[in-house]
Amino acid sequence: MSDQLLIFDTTLRDGEQSPGASMTADEKLRIAVQLERMHVDIIEAGFPAASPGDFDAVQQIARRVTESTICGLARAIERDIEKAAAAVQPSSRRRIHTFIATSPIHMQEKLKMTPKQVLEQAVWAVKKACNYTDDVEFSPEDAGRSDPDFLCRILEAVIAAGARTVNIPDTVGYAIPSEFGQLIHSLMERIPNSSQAVFSVHCHNDLGLAVANSLAAVMGGARQVECTINGLGERAGNAALEEVVMAIRTRPDRYGCNTVIDATEIVPASRLISNITGFAVQPNKAIVGANAFAHEAGIHQDGVIKHRETYEIMRAEDVGWTANRMVLGKHSGRSALKQRLQKLGFEIESEETMNVAFARFKALADKKHEIFDEDLQALMSEHTIETLSDTYRLVSMSVCSQTGEIPEATVTVAVEGGEKTEVARGSGPVDATFRAIEKIVNSASTLQLYSVNNITSGTDSQGEVTVRVEKDGRIINGHGADTDIVIASGRAYINAMNKLAANEGRSHPQQTHFL
């Protein structure tokens, strides 16, 4: 058995299925570059058959990323496999991941197929995928609730057909660690040709056991774990990459394997994902939460001061918390800014892009003494947002809020080559702002979430606002940042409206759920 554990990151595919976590092609590329920097073994870049946008994003990543294997997901049908093959074709390290459900409830109620038909379809799909690449992965969807005897039959058949990775997904988060670890061990023992494939696991967190189940599977013999940054994913999420990696690294005595992950890139990756999706990381989140290495109790503080290992089993530096960073401020020049932006994964493709970024940086530096990486990510996200679509652009805002009076907002938005101004009153300054913008855009959408987080510490910190709107069953995430929370709110709502306008009528990966 190999002593290397492969890390298969599915943030860009399964992570994006989390309602409101939709990402643009540019954002996906930035994340993929960061995952490559972290030395992730396999990046599941998306589901190419879901939409033209998803296909293009996977293809762009396949062209750009060279160190990681690029994987595309495909149902066990011809069109999906052909789309996945075409999308990952530019990569010299490409994988097709095909799947079909194997649990009784899925075969009977969803597929309307017999076990024999499912087995035949799985073998056909693997052989079809092998026409495009030698690296084919197969998943029996809802394996956690499938009959073990049937799993043995179908996995033996797909391995014989050419699958070099077989993934056991706990699709609905139903398993518990002891039984899941035993399932992996049993499958590897019972399947005659199991040594010809890497056994993988893909666990969901519905019972809060995704990481525990993944680690139990590793002890059972699995040598690939499918996971996401920050545990992002549909419903309660997926196994968190950072927790799996650091558990393996901290307890080699128990797991007998290791990864090639550069753990110092974990916190930067976590912040990037949080910034792009607007999904804040809870302070007490393991590894990447703000309090993960914080000590308030006097006894703990005293112990750490005397000897760090009294209360810390990992070093904060090892996961990227205290990595040296170039301090940027209002006296910093273009070269320093460009270098830092490139380090953060932003491509400065033209002088015009750099000019806009530098102007925004200087404007922010006049408001803040120090500019942190999180500020730059927010700043560049704002720039990217506005270049994605010019349907709406916030021109100006004026908000009046005082004790005993109903707040009123006056908002001017550039739209269709002109400007429109509306005035609205609301229960607060943000409510008034949103009402004024809605008068202009007339989206008929419903606000589902409004969230504010500080990007950095201090009273001069930028506020990061996330809004989530729904229209006709489609969920859109909007993002905005500014040192003024009300302005950040207006920008976030405008961002959501631009995304809604740009994607009107298009299919989206969140409309279908897999694995």
3D architecture notes:
By secondary structure, this protein is an alpha/beta fold. It has four domains: 6-277, Alpha-Beta Barrel (TIM Barrel), CATH 3.20.20.70; 293-321, no CATH class; 334-385, no CATH class; 389-502, Double Stranded RNA Binding Domain (2-Layer Sandwich), CATH 3.30.160.270. The protein contains 17 helices and 14 strands. Strands 1-2-3-4-5-6-7-8 form an eight-stranded parallel β-barrel, surrounded by eight helices. A three-stranded antiparallel β-sheet has the order 9-10-11. Helix 8 links the parallel strand 7 (198-203) and strand 8. Helix 2 runs parallel beside helix 3 (78-88) and helix 5 packs parallel to helix 6 (148-161). The radius of gyration is 24 Å and the shape is globular. The protein starts with 5 loop residues before the first strand and ends in a 13-residue tail after the last helix.
In order across it, which strands form the biggest sheet? 1-2-3-4-5-6-7-8
Q: Would you tell me the structural class of the helices and strands?
A: alpha/beta
- Number of DSSP strand runs: 14
Q: N-to-C terminal Cα separation, in Å?
A: 26 Å
Number of domains: 4
Q: Could you tell me the strand content as a percent range?
A: 15-25%
The CATH homologous superfamily of the largest domain corresponds to Aldolase class I
- CATH level-two architecture of the largest domain: Alpha-Beta Barrel
| CATH fold-level name of the largest domain | TIM Barrel
- CATH class category name of the largest domain: Alpha Beta
Uncertain segments are 505-511
Which overall shape is indicated by the principal axes computed on the Cα atoms?
globular
